[in-house]
Amino acid sequence: MAVYTDVGDEALENFLAAYDLGEVTAFKGIAEGVENSNYILQTTRGGYILTLYEKRVNASELPYFLDLMHHLSAKGLPCPLPVARRDGTVLGTLEGREAALFTFLSGVSVRRPTAAHCAECGRSLAQMHLAAIDYKGIRPNALSAHDWRSVLAQGDKAQVMAACENLWSGCHAFVEEQLTLLETQWPLDLPRGTIHADLFPNNVLFLGETLSGLIDFYFASTDMLAYDLAICLNAWCFEGDGSFNVTKSRAMIAAYETVRPLLDREVEALPLLARGAAMRFFVTRMVDSLNVPAGALVKPLDPREYAKKLRFHALAGSSAAYGVEARS
Amino acid sequence: MAVYTDVGDEALENFLAAYDLGEVTAFKGIAEGVENSNYILQTTRGGYILTLYEKRVNASELPYFLDLMHHLSAKGLPCPLPVARRDGTVLGTLEGREAALFTFLSGVSVRRPTAAHCAECGRSLAQMHLAAIDYKGIRPNALSAHDWRSVLAQGDKAQVMAACENLWSGCHAFVEEQLTLLETQWPLDLPRGTIHADLFPNNVLFLGETLSGLIDFYFASTDMLAYDLAICLNAWCFEGDGSFNVTKSRAMIAAYETVRPLLDREVEALPLLARGAAMRFFVTRMVDSLNVPAGALVKPLDPREYAKKLRFHALAGSSAAYGVEARS
């Protein structure tokens, strides 16, 4: 749940004076986004989302994210479009925070995606990758393979070790071994571009089984495109009991390939990329679970889920485990 | 901010199957209500608020509140209308909670009401009092004059005394003296009916300066009508610096009287009723501020504000302090 910056009616009025939106008919804080405060705003012109950027977001990076959403929207991707003020700019300040207004997207996120949802996700991910090919913005991925060890080192060493062993005996050595393996084997020669990097089911909206929105681009960065797909395989294709549903991954990858066929070397790298993606979410969840501030509104996510996924991928062997084989 | 019960998409689907609402197009948890979890639901038929009743609400009292909203809505009051399911009932269960769906009301609450807003509030309060005259439901006010001492006694005695003295030296004796005075002088002969009992600015919606909604009826009860007005005088007519704005109270009372003229003995009782209303919010805020559970999402409101208001009313002398005089 979001940490909220409370927005007063006068502050809102002053902020909106820079826009041309008609009269406000509703304004409610919503429980969406972890790093930002978000509000639904309805005016006589339509529905919007108002986002206030809290301190964890680096303000100098906001133009990268906002320009990307503008770029993707202009190409027909269903992502929030930053709404321009009368002077043409899209960033303002509200209650001491940088703030921006976005078009409202219909749809609801699904908690238990079906194979059809997974296919929609794969197709839209590929569409996003293609649409962003000529996006000029560059943002190095701060959570890539050579960053994971230092992320984990943000936690107290003894605490991290105890927390790992608490998952299963030998888990800490397993994680260390996997970190070393990923650092040495991480591919460098795969096609790169702009990735979403956090396309979990809660960041995708559906109307029935049709995808209607991609949201929350605040981890977007420049990295390997197939790594983005590997993140989605982790986030969408495991069942609640920890088992991997290859029907879903096959559907996701096949739909991705209808838009952007994978190179053979991308297919071959999938197990390693999926292992890396699992490690990326394991290390941040582990550190977050050890550093819960007193009175925090956000319940940390359990690192156990991603430790188990990491183990699955470590045993996967080849891309066939994901329902796809290299065609060379 | 509300405590949220997380609602899954399948649970929502099952819950909505009992209604005839078309397809869901949006569903977002909102930061509204303290006792309940609230969601905005949009469907192809329109906008709704979904409320899940958390444990602090006594489920056996829900029909009283829901029937009241239905009754007031039917008489044209702009309050949420419980939406009937196909079988005609209005209460369902969702994620283990009792839950109901309401029509969505446009409007925004104002943080700093003007005299015009105060007048709108007064007028609508009187309209609500008249509209509820033939409402059959009865619910004794559990927070009336003879309850305040026992509410305060829910706090540790030494803690309460220290917290009072922390407001100003002699405050604890002042509160004790006022409690005794209110218990002995509390009027028993004023017109009674259904009161909202919590009509603070955050529970009233406006479109510009026109009132568009009265919400949050979960303190509604059977009590003296003029006491409801006294609660509003406390909630709407003090400025941020603690001063009482008699222009606002005059506007509120005058507008109330255009709909339901006060009896002389109601006017005469206003200072005492206002004092009681201040005491009612002082005691609950005091106890809440001493009993903040670890990890609470709700920041307790400061009791100091209402201790000062209590002192203002204790010194008020006559109803002239509120901009109204008895006409006998």
Fraction in helix of chain A: 40-55%
How large a portion of the residues of chain A is in β-strands, by DSSP E? Answer: 15-25%
Instruction: Specify the overall morphology of chain A.
Output: globular
State mean pLDDT of chain A (0 to 100 scale). 93
Q: Summarize the biggest pleated sheet of chain A.
A: 5 strands, antiparallel
| Discrete helix count of chain A | 10
Low-confidence stretches of chain A: none
Report the largest inter-chain contact: A-B, 30 and 30 residues
Please provide a written account of the structure.
Two copies of one chain form a homodimer. Chain A has 328 residues and is an alpha+beta fold. Chain A is built from ten helices and nine strands. In chain A, helix 7 packs across helix 9. The model of chain A has no long low-confidence stretch (mean pLDDT 93). Chains A and B meet through strand 1 of A and strand 1 of B.
